[in-house]
Amino acid sequence: MKKRPYLTMIHDLEFRNTTEKGLSLEKVHERILHFMRLDPKAEYKFIIGTDCQVHTGHTKFITGVVIQRMGKGAWACYRQVIIPRTFSSIKEKLSTETSYSEEIALFFNEQRRSEMEDIVLPFVYQGASVEMFIHIDAGTDKLKNKTAMFVEEMVRRVESMGMVPIIKPDSYVASSYANRFSKKPYHPTEAGITLSNGIL
Known about the structure:
The chain is α/β, with parallel strands linked by helices and 200 residues long. The protein is 31% helix and 24% strand. The protein has a 6-stranded mixed sheet with strand order 1-4-3-2-5-6. The protein starts with 9 loop residues before the first strand and ends in an 18-residue tail after the last helix.
């Protein structure tokens, strides 16, 4: 029987996409501002969302950061956290997902959010806007979602940060984008963190 390599916790704050590796949060913010400046008259959604998958011997959390230009594409990147144990509690999984989204949202403080808003401000009367969301991988339908009983608590947490909470079926950054990459088990032989392409 092949022995599984010992996993330690990995909690990188580096992001990556198809064109760049090792992006710090400062660099992610710069890329978002650049993307918005390319079309300051557009409508934007700035979204953070986390998904997790339980694998043999570890749980993999993926947090996506997306700036979406409505109807005109998006720029996206993500990072991963590997915890070397399997999560069995639905509430613990959901709460930890929300915590990792909140961790990234804390970086985007009032000053950084204002820098994003300042780009579209001269064009608000022409329809320009930027809204900021955290996508929660949970829904209120008790027949479809085992997470339903915890949704209200997670929504309150997100609202307390000044972000708008979005739940299933509309929380696509968590339930679709991040989910795509949380499905693949982590292998210690991987060079660095495996991240997404830069466009949704």
